[in-house]
User: Fold this.
Amino acid sequence: MSVVRLRRAAVAATAVLGLTVTAGCSAADVLPGGSGGSGAGGSASGDGASQDDGSLEITATPQDGAGAVPVDARPTVRVTGGELGRVTLSGPRKDLEGVVADDGGWVATDRLEPGTTYTLTAEATGEDGESGTTRTRFTTQDLTLDQQTFPSVAPLEGETVGVGMPVIVQFDVPVTDRASIERHLSVESTPAQPGSWHWISDSEVRWRPKDYWEPGTEVTVDADVNSVDAGGGIYGQESRSIDFTVGSSVINRVDIAAHTMKTFIDGDLARTMPISAGKGGFETRSGTKVIMEKFRTKTMDAATTGIQPGDPEYYNIDDVEYALRVTNSGEFLHAAPWSVGSQGSANVSHGCVGMSTEDAAWVYDNTKRGDVVEVTGSSRPMTVDNGWGDWNESFQDYSEGSALG
Assistant:
């Protein structure tokens, strides 16, 4: 660390109230007098006496010339025997910000970037009016892409979504210190709604409100993970912030036993449709699902669900219309003109909810990502991790998936 000391006069210190110093502010804004002192690593004017005999001391860390400083280190400045003045933490592209700490010192609030050289300069004034300067220059550890994890966020910036849409943050390198990362994730909404994070895996964490979103809610997601320790020598690669809007409430209620689907828009029944769901051995899962993707046309290949060519149950159908994905395992709502004769009376599909082309087109036109599909009537349950199944646990159980308890 870099230290500079000045002898101080035996006079009472004058308290400075309401002092706020950030990187780049002028010493003249907060302290009287000019800036004297040395260049990098040197000592300001004075005889270098120890603190015990009444000297001003400025201590800056990391120390001058320190190599491979961790990117999550927080540069600091501490002053004894005087008052802090101007502090700058300069990098190759910009100065980093900081704030005055409780002890009157300074701590950086911006995070360091990997493989970067910084210069930390601090000025202070002793009780006898003499000033001093200390400067330290250090370089942060260089990180490969394998040592950094990038957060992808859904919904997308500016997207309008349904009331069942979870916030999803996926990491391209697994996170082993979930708590460290979760402390730097936040969801704020207007109007405010309580919710919780829930880790699906080391590579994915989601947030859902306690109840379905209120239509019209404005939401901001901050993944402030740049240079945050993710565990195992991995650090966050970049911070992300996105805004999205919750649109109208669209709830599709599928009754497998009655072979019908009813769509409610903002609480009102908008359409009732005959459907055909999964047959024996391929039952459609009961539970709450969320529309994940929309396809105007989609090839439906049974091989993607584990049914191989040559199996009597194998199928490969091109250009299936108005397909809405609701699970990772291959369940969709879609047009199924081949099963119109069974729609409303029998379940003949391999797990999808099929309907007439006219009905499927109407559903496609009146739904968006995040709209809800509530399914009843089978003994095969939906799970939290099969698509966006976040609503299939009570909020209390869901909250237990947070790394912060």
Summary: The chain has a mean pLDDT of 87. The helical segments are 178-182, 357-365, 395-399. The two ends are 37 Å apart (CA to CA).
